[in-house]
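JOB MANIFEST
job_type = single_chain_structure
chain_count = 1
residues = 175
[input]
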Amino acid sequence: MLLWAHGMLGSPDGSKVQYLRGRGVALVAPDLRDQPLIERIARTRRALDAALADGHRVLLGGSSLGGLVVGAIAAELAATPGVLGAQVVGLVLAAPAFHICGAVEGAPAGLAAPEGLPVRIVHGRADAVVPVQASRDYRARSGRGVSLLEVDDDHRLDASLDHIYGAVRALQAPA
């Protein structure tokens, strides 16, 4: 199952969610509209806890601010033995807003991927909202297991939905 956190101006029925559902991806997308970052993290964490309690293996995904949300959750889970890898199988990030790490209330500073958790990032080189350098820096801080696909696209990644789907398929937990 994919747990998807949408971006600041996105919605739980946004274009990425619709595209992925249209390709048969089972996903949950909590409504994070009009919430401060700290509440977005809390709501997404509650959705994750519910999915795990139901016995699902979960792939975390997020776009823009939602990428920061799931990245923060994954970093937090690194302190809980046995969750990452066994229950939370990876991260798919679409133009994650890592450039605001430490600059916004609730945003952890120096965020990096937990050791051993596979991460796939798709980021547009023409992104005028979140600089692609933010994803490059995250990958550099994280070490092995993090791949970054830089595409000829902007922040919305409308021309790169197939790449996001490919990243999900590559890491998708078995049903």
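[summary]
Residues 119 and 146 are 5 Å apart (CA to CA).
The mean pLDDT is 93.
exit_status = 0
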